[in-house]
């Protein structure tokens, strides 16, 4: 198979984990491949991914080789592939737009943003020049304008788009139509972790429903110390994030909970946690005889590596769509790897849809089979 050439918008912790992971899994055979959800997809391996362009606004990253930029402050994720080669990819200055919250410009720590004093590049032209197949969007939460800018740049450059952030592009009919008309695939929105708070919350809610438990109320509170959590101290940037995470859980229930009985979202920024995210989950319900039951769970994960596996799957399926000339939202892989896809499906159904798509079968038939079964 050919290489999968990607560009990255936002060289933060998630980009660092993704790039480290591509190198890590290029030295691991299938028999010892721990951590990937899928070792091979449609003939593509994780090691087939190559970054050919990158965009950021922080002066500690702009102008640097990508290898150095992914380890620069304010990044703080775990380093598990320290000996990376130079990529020969210079991080270009992107437009700032709403990509940096004002409270982060003067925050008294190395987590503050230091915006580079450079003119933004022409992103669409850089994408064309790089030969990228796919643009992966890692803009911060709340970057509505910046995310739409990069989505349009992907359209202008004729590349696929993977929207890992909770700004609704793939799940917005107008944007979906634009990508369909250009015959460009899009995967989104808001990436799920491999084994994170949302996927665990969904699984438990689904289990309760299947076992006849009446779920009355639930919350999910998350704390972390990376720039994502610092960014989310600005409550004005959280609207789409809360919608995305809440709908991901509500979608597995036969009857959604009233809004006053479900609370899901970031809780607070704890600097010394760095890229570690801690989830506090509580679910209250009733079992046989209307007897109360409650569940409390604490989940601790390294946040950015936890989403990199989902991104690697999304990238490979997106490339398969490009190879086949398929445009528009990819429903199966979006439901499998994203919190707010165009259509929500149960996780096991979404996985089977992805498998059907890879095998050139009709993925739309899988939900119908599930309903009949």
Short description:
Helix content is 34%, strand content 21%. The chain is α/β, with parallel strands linked by helices.
Report on this structure.
Helices cover 34% and strands 21% of the residues. With 373 residues, it is an alpha/beta fold. Strand 11 and strand 12 form a beta hairpin.
Question: How many DSSP-defined strands?
Answer: 13
Report the order of strands and helices. EHEEEHEHEHEHEHEHHEEEHEHHH
SSE-based structural type: alpha/beta
Task: Enumerate the spans where pLDDT stays under 50 for 5 or more consecutive residues.
Answer: none
CA-atom Rg in angstroms:
20 Å
Mean pLDDT: 94
Please indicate the percent range of residues in DSSP E strands (runs of 2 or more). 15-25%
Shape: globular
In which range does the helix fraction lie?
25-40%
Largest sheet: 7 strands, parallel
How far is the N terminus from the C terminus?
Answer: 36 Å
How many alpha or pi helices?
12
The largest beta-sheet arranges its strands as 5-4-1-6-7-8-13
